[in-house]
Write a structure and sequence with these properties.
Elements lengths: L1 H7 L6 H12 L6 H18 L11 H5 L2 H11 L4 H15 L4 H20 L6 H10 L4 E4 L2 E6 L2 E8 L2 E8 L6 H13 L1
Antiparallel strand pairs: 1-2, 2-3, 3-4
Length: 194
């Protein structure tokens, strides 16, 4: 049976190189660079393990990958950064490119789009400090943890935050200089408006 399925699966596009990388490149300005690298690295490791490469493996092995813990870990990672739409685009592109050349994988890709949407709608998002720290890091911020408080330090700005009762509680400190009391008060008023 496997030999028959392998004959049915002769795509002309490699999942990682032609589909994942293309979707990431098209959305590079919409996603944190760190997340794009993490997605690419995660799928690259899975390609080594499951051997689904078009070049040196069998694209039907994508079915094994999509059942694996590695796949669902990737889904959770992307979900935690509010970017499940990115994986949905990857899966839709996979379904489109494999629809006539590897039908079992194309069908599974469309099933996964539905599963991911269902999983997201069923699981209410709860804020946690880990989730906030991960999201900040994926957005390029330098974050450190000290005694249950996340600290973000940027030039002239320091933020301390915690998560309590599903809310982000933060303090933002801004460093600056003013030559007159009027200039200082004007800046103070601008900060109060925020």
């Amino acid at each position: 049976m496997q030999a028959i399925e392998a004959k049915e699966c002769k795509p002309d596009r490699d999942f990682l190189r032609h589909i994942v990388n293309r979707v990431l490149a098209l959305n590079i300005n919409k996603i944190p660079r760190g997340l794009a690298d993490d997605v690419r690295t995660s799928i690259g490791r899975a390609e080594d393990k499951y051997k689904f490469s078009l070049i040196s493996g069998d694209p039907m092995r994508l079915l094994d990958y999509f059942k694996s813990e590695e796949w669902w870990d990737l889904v959770d990672m992307v979900k935690n950064t509010n970017l499940t739409w990115l994986l949905e685009q990857v899966l839709k592109e996979l379904a489109d490119k494999y629809s006539s050349s590897c039908e079992p994988v194309a069908k599974k890709a469309l099933e996964l789009v539905s599963l991911i949407k269902d999983k997201e709608s069923q699981t209410p998002r709860r804020l946690s400090l880990d989730y906030v720290v991960r999201a900040l890091k994926y957005s390029g911020y330098q974050v450190s943890l000290k005694e249950g408080v996340a600290i973000v330090e940027e030039p002239y700005v320091k933020v301390e935050l915690t998560v309590k009762d599903d809310n982000i509680v933060y303090t933002i400190c801004r460093e600056g200089k003013a030559k007159t009391i009027e200039a200082f008060m004007a800046r103070l008023e601008k900060i109060r408006e925020i």
